[in-house]
Amino acid sequence: MIPTLFSVSYAGLWGQARLDLPSFFKKASELGYRAVEVMGKRPHLSVLDATPEYLAKLRAAADEAGVEIATIAGYTDFTAGKTASEVPFVEMQIAYVTALARAAKTLGAKLVRVFTGYTTDAESCQGDWEKCVTAIRACAGSAQEQDVMLGVQNHHDVGVGFDAYREFLRDVDHPNCRAMFDPWSVALHGEDLYRCAREMAPMMVQTTLADYVKLKRFAYMPGLINYRALPEMVRAVPLGEGFIDLPAFFRGLKDGGFKGNVAYEMCSPLRGGGSMENLDATARKSLSYLLELTDKPPAGPSNPK
Q1: N- to C-terminal Cα distance for the chain?
Q2: CA angle 211, 217, 219 (to 5 degrees)
Q3: What CA–CA distance (Å, rounded) separates 209 from 238?
Q4: Beta bridge partners of 264
Q5: Do the Cβ atoms of 5 and 33 come closer than 8 Å?
Q6: Is the CA virtual torsion 130, 93, 106, 1 positive or negative?
Q7: Quick check: 122 and 86 in contact, CB under 8 A?
């Protein structure tokens, strides 16, 4: 298993400090990560900016920092655009993923990540499902032409539950489409993380991790002099400090034979805030925990070229 740092962590989202990609590559190396996942949109890698010259500079910067670019992370929603059916939203997204796959090949990355789609309405469940299956199968074929593997992350509504996710990948049924199964969404709903990881491991090329604490929420009802419960909010914390049973998840990965990238992301409001100092401390602490889970010794000093 290869600990990997996701560049979204330093993209300036959620009030976080921001680094450009060359600076991020250097940061990842200094923190002890030897591989990175690159966010496939601005302010990081946009297909609008991915000229041959720019990609060559990025690859040189990664080589200089001594990190491997493992994955390019696409951002897709294949059910979008229902109120404007005349606009080819799916075709545009397939073209976007194809462009990311070309960039990935140039950068030496082996994987492109995609999402499925968000639910449009209850009556369209099967239609949403079929739309995502067809689109992702097409993306897998486009990525295959670039000798890049496509991975589906269980993030969006379609196929987000474990059994639904596994069923969805079976329906896609493309040799170039693999699982990027993550524990957080299924942990929120009480799934057995050991079982999920063990059963999914043979299909996986990557997992992406974060950890959270749950914070209860209430709304005051003056007429009752009482509170009603609201859905809990979550806040990101370093790996191992939240409610996700990561030791069980990793036991399942090992027993299932998973060998691939284990990406860490800070992609939500973070305990301690979004300063560079807090991001760095959280990333270091999380890497240390990852190394314990994967039974790897700490990395030595970086040896950039």
Answers
A1: 24
A2: 165
A3: 10
A4: 5, 209
A5: yes
A6: negative
A7: no
Structure tokens at 41: 């949109």
User: Alpha carbon 143 to chain centroid distance?
Assistant: 18
β partners of residue 6: 37
Residue 298 pLDDT level (bands cut at 50, 70, 90): low
Which residue reads 């097409």 in tokens? 138
Q: Which tens digits make up the pLDDT trace of 51-85?
A: 999 999 999 999 999 999 999 999 999 999 988 99
Is 0.90 topped by the overall pTM? yes
Q: Which two tokens stand for residue 200?
A: 């999914």
**Residue 291 class from Cβ within 10 Å (0-12 exposed, 13-18 middle, 19+ buried)?**
middle
SS3 303: coil
Query: Among residues 154, 150, 148, 280, which one has the least CA distance to residue 207?
Result: 154
CA angle 9/289/262 to nearest 5° reads 55
Side-chain half-sphere CA neighbours of 111 within 13 A: 28
User: What tokens appear for 297 in the block?
Assistant: 């010794």
Hey, what amino acid is at 140? Answer: A
Distance of CA 204 to the CA centre of its chain: 13
pLDDT digits (tens, 9 = 90+) for 161-178: 999 999 999 999 999 999
Rounded CA-CA distance 91/234 in Å is: 35
CA pair distance 225, 203, nearest whole angstrom: 52
